[in-house]
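Box S2. Input/output pair 1.
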Amino acid sequence: MTIRTLHQKIEDKTARIGVIGLGYVGLPAACMFADAGFAVTGVDVKPDRVDLINQGQSPIEGDEPGLAELLTKVVEMGKFRATADYDALREADIVLIVVETPVDDTDHKPRYAALQSACRSLGAVLKDDALVICESTVAPGTVDGLIGPTLEEVSGKKANTDFYLGACPERVMPGKLLANLRGVSRVCGGSTSETARAMVSLYSHIVEADLDAADVITAELVKTTENAYRDVQIGFANEVAMICEANGANVWHVRELVNKSPFRNMHLPGAGVGGHCIPKDPWLLAFAAPDDVDLRIIPSARAVNDGMPLHILKLAEKALASHDHSLVDARLAVLGYAYLEESDDTRNSPSAILVEQLEKLGIDHMIHDPWVDAYKGDLFERIGGCDAAIIMVKHAAYRDMDLESLKDSLRTPILIDGRGLLDPEQVQAAGLTYYGIGRGDI
């Protein structure tokens, strides 16, 4: 079977699809391809997740509109099943690799243990003429430099002769998984132009936005560049916020007026950047730079954004001082532990950086998050005896909380707004001392 034959099987939906990794990206993608009419087999290393999926139950607990219902539907239709056994992929015509690709906390280099393991396991069962697509975000050059050679070594097959390679990095975020899969454009990078065209045909069954054919390196570069761009812009916004604080200004008003000028798009400042993508992808892009390129902007933005939770702690220290309290003797309430509102995803959470610092300093604290199992519970009961509440996540529960009840529950009436979530005048009207990111005017 040639790539042209596979292309025809994609058109008539007889191609069998395998998905390696059934997390925030792989699971919704598998469900959508199954709902489009393809037979889909998902592989995941976590047996408990496999069991839940085969029962039609979503292992993703955040607010994901439509995902649980879609999963139940495709499992009951018999179009999608999950397994921990790679042998189930022997008949797969197309395999999507959607596994974690973290970077090391110290040297910021990619750590591809999961990716290498997936490639070796897939290589042992890889079907002739199969198309392997990497949806994981990787450093530019990884598909040709790691995935292809690993598959060739284990399978004994040759890329672009016996099997085909592609990269189509995901562009989703928790809370909008299905909507992003349908509505956000994708870059279909193929190892040959025919492969790229076949990928466009494949993704056209689930994506309603633009699908751009490209080569593999371009697809890898686009994904890492777009997230590095966001990180740099957020870092800039955070520095402006700190300048506003020092000069008695309101960063939110400054941002509004800046963005009235054509071609300006100042991003939102905040208590830190989390998730699986933005804290990691700039380092993946940087990894592709040769040694003689002196990178400055990307590492600087990463340093600014990683430092924002500690800046929020400084705001708490100032607020406590205004009440003649010291930071070391205070008990702090950290509101939100997920990295994103209405999500249970805690990957690279800025709150984790804050909590780590509190523990290092020996500062008493508690954590609340309405979406994360370990920290659920009645907010006002849990913050009793705390000297300050620090909003780290824009959960609706915090936006809509009763401020007078918050004041009555706290030992010292202090609110630190790390996300610009609340109206300072309303907070102060409830009898709370307000300190917020970029609010030097309060």
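Box S3. Input/output pair 2.
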Amino acid sequence: MLREQKDIKGIISLWAFAECGIGGFLHALRLPFTGIFAGGVAIICIVLIGYYTNGDRKKLMEALGLVLMVKLIASPHSPWQAYVAVIFQGVVGWLLFSNLNYFKWKVLFFAVVCMLESAVQKILLSILIYGFSFFKAIDEAAINLMKHLGLGQEASIVGIIFGAYIILHLFTGIFLGLWIPKIPLQLEKVRLMIPGDFLLKTGEIIGRKKRFHPFLWSFLVFSMVILILHFTLPPSFGINMTALFIRVVGISLFLIFVISPIIKFIIKRNLENQDIGKQELKSIISVLPQMESNAMGILTWSNNTFKGWQKLKYFILGILVVSMKLHQDAE
């Protein structure tokens, strides 16, 4: 059955907004895993694009191209793995939602696969950068500490953390897969619930504080871990801290300054060869600041109106409603 087609520019804008870091207001939510939140919003947007276009493959691919171009322009310092994740999500969505048969099952599969890809990608990247010896050292240090405290546990701390991380993404994917098919009907209800005075006026932009580059945070955390391992591991363990430090810094710099520019260059060249509308691209970029402002208004509304997980649910529904309306108003 064909669904009523709608203008999806607002949904594409929200997807681009999520991929550009989704703004400083994420910190106001105080979520421990902001990457899961941003990835979840992207998954919702891709499914809704397929839903409202009745599985139009051309529009799905155009949406992916627009989001990648906006990301290259508005968030040029994003790591290369973020682009890989966007392409993976977009291509899988393009393959699955070419038609809407078995829609609910496809949404569940799509959400779970995308969430697991995000988790596995980060774990594999960590192993690539730090190596197995680093994580083995962490396990050894944890076991020594437990023995010192009189605890006989010798379980792999790293294995438990990685396993919990994957399980968290798995359950998030299942939750999204079961919830997303209900969103179109819920949007109509939320549209009537949002008070206009919770939306900030055009041009009233929330200022952002300057934040450290993710590499700097990782470097500081890694340095602290190296110091802890140096004082907690027995000399007989045989790990060379200096060599480990050089490995991590060397591989990280190689990925940031060599691999990342190559991947971005390839993406940009391929997108330039496609027929991506400059007017649509300009329109999406122009509404991004206002989307962040209105998202702060929706956050205030959801915090004041709902409790528990309902705050997050109606926050997401609210920014979907506002994004679609904002793009209409801008035109």
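Caption for Box S3: Residues 9-131+156-211+276-330 form one domain. The CA atoms of residues 81 and 121 lie 8 Å apart.
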